[in-house]
Amino acid sequence: MQVLQKAWEAFQLLVNEQGQRESLEALGRIYLQLGELPVAEKYLHLALELARHNGIERAQLLNLLAGVQHRSGDYGSSLTSLEEALKIHELLNNSSQAASVLGNMGILYTSQGRYPEALTHLTRAYRILRDEAQDERMQGVVLLNLGHLYLGMGEPTKSIPYFEEALHLARRRQDRLAVAMSTLNIGAAQDQAGHYADAEPAFREALTISREIQYRPGEVSALDGLGNILAQRGQLHEAAAAHAEAAAIAREIEDLEGELDALNHLGQVQAELGDFPVALSSLERALTLAQEADHKKTVYEAHRALAGVYKRAGDFERALHHHELYHEAERALFNEESDKKTRELSAQFDVERARHEAEVQRLQREMAETAREEAEALVRERTHELEQAQVEIVTRLAVAAEYRDDLTGEHTWRVGHVSALIARELGLPDEDVALLRIAARLHDVGKIGIPDAILLKPGKFTPEEQERMKAHTLIGARILSGGHSRLLRMAEEIALSHHERWDGGGYPLGKAGHSIPVTGRIVSVADVFDALTSERPYKQAWDRGDALAELRRQAGTQFDPEVVEAALRVFTRADFTRLMRAETESAAAAEATRRS
């Protein structure tokens, strides 16, 4: 830094802008590596001022600046920098650099949870690099990020082909670091998919290569993953040794994330071995580190694990103490994440609506000046685009609402898939089944308007609280109202009717029998079955047999008997798990087709 600072000053005296720019860029890179992001950003902005007349250099600096802004959490500025860099590269027909920027935009969208945009940009980057036989190293990076994207969406099976292709390219380039990273990701994906027999050799190969090339973070991840596999197989002593070694290496290289994961897993394995004092020591250290780093998710996970170990050790007072702290920390994280998602998605919904209205007005003016038929076609196209944007954003709002009392957000997916299976069993047309699979996911979007004090209350509601809770059906219908697509109209119908009862005792309108839309009757059964069989912060999961018995008892009172019979035929199939997996894949294919 001292040498570069002197160089920059000397180039200023010489009025040499090229030398000044190169010095400033180098200083920006060093401060970025040191993690001093505001200083790095300052030097890169100065370099940009000097590169205002050089397109290639300006685009490269913007790409670098976007990385600094991304790490600083300034996603809006990062995206603006990347978009400007992409325009320059496209204008100059610099396809390989354009692909690099597209890849970075995909990574940015992934970190924001904007998976459709991430998939579009990463796929586009890969196609450019592949079709033009450009930069196999960058191809591998994009493939790894495509794999991570599918892991983030909870689809590990779909991520594996991308990791395997990245591994193939790494081996062809004889890049052992990339081989280790690709193999490690394959192991993680196989582990997440439950394919433990395939995950173990991948973790062991990644561990061997990481040790040979002294890639210490790879050792940490491989050892921790291997420990989880060994624990699954009941080899607890070997698992504990693997987790302990991972924690020690992570501590040595100051890898906080790696140490937290390893300590948490180590404590759980030690508890299974019955060594409670050692398990408590590991988990207490994980808790302390997480609290110091304000790592909220690990804090509540550590409290939950400590509560379990103290309970098994017979120290019920401490178990209760950590259990209370676990719920307090978990509730705080729910509220923080839910509020953040709600603000972001509501703003995005308003922006999309405003854009559409402005575009329609512009096109309507053009209709008076150009051929009416052509302009009307454009209006239909823009309206279709708005409907797609509305479905995408409202679906995310549904997940945000569900996230408040379901950390995984998987409830909405399961209700959609189960509703589709029941609808197919009832003989509904394929088109209706496909629409219902998506529309059913929005059944509880109105929860976004229910206060946490009511939504997450573990005890019985007061009469006033019960009425507030019932209002989520009306709130959901209001959010979804006004949509012109059949999908949004169906979603509005479901949001309003899925708590009506067959005997007329439901809400909000007290409808009975066949006056309740069939979509609402189907989702009512799917929703209750999943709610009964799922664990929530305020309840334990029911046994599947007990849940089926409850559906039978409520047939003819709460539920449509015909829908219950169809549901029971679905739930009792030997291949129900495979059917759910097939529904998931079908939904993903339908979603991809809809977006295209």
Characterize the structure shown.
The protein is mostly helical. The chain has helices at residues 2-13, 17-34, 37-50, 55-71, 75-91, 95-111, 115-131, 136-152, 156-173, 176-192, 196-212, 216-232, 236-252, 256-272, 276-292, 296-312, 316-369, 372-403, 410-426, 430-439, 452-455, 463-470, 472-480, 486-497, 518-533, 544-554, 561-571, 576-595. The chain has a domain at 407-595: Orthogonal Bundle (Hypothetical protein af1432), CATH 1.10.3210.10. The chain has 28 helices and no strands. The longest helix has 54 residues, at 316-369. Residues 590-596 have low confidence and may be disordered.
| Overall 3D shape | globular
Q: Regarding CATH, which class of the domain at 407-595?
A: Mainly Alpha
**Poorly predicted parts:** 590-596
Number of helical stretches of at least 4 residues: 28
Helix/strand class: mainly alpha
List its traits.
596 residues; mainly alpha; Hypothetical protein af1432; 28 helices
Structure, briefly:
The protein is mostly helical. It has helices spanning 2-13, 17-34, 37-50, 55-71, 75-91, 95-111, 115-131, 136-152, 156-173, 176-192, 196-212, 216-232, 236-252, 256-272, 276-292, 296-312, 316-369, 372-403, 410-426, 430-439, 452-455, 463-470, 472-480, 486-497, 518-533, 544-554, 561-571, 576-595. The protein is globular and about 90 Å long.
